[in-house]
Amino acid sequence: MEKEKKSNDSSNTEPSSFKLLVSFPSGLSPSQVSVEFGDNYDRIPHSDLTLENTISEIWEQRSVQNKSLFNGNKFRYGGHVLRAGGESDDEPHVCLHLGLTDYRTFVGTNLSPLWEKFLVSSEDDFVLCQHTSSPLGNGAVVETIDNKILVLQRSNNVGEFPGYFVFPGGHPEPQEIGITSHQNVKELPDSININVSREMFDSIVREVVEEIGVPASSLSVPAFIGISRRDLNVRPAAFFFIKCNLDSKEVQQFYSSALDGYESTQLYSVSMIELENMASRMPGCHRGGFALYKLMVDTRKIT
Question: Which residues are in the Nudix hydrolase domain (predicted)?
Answer without folding.
Answer: 133-298
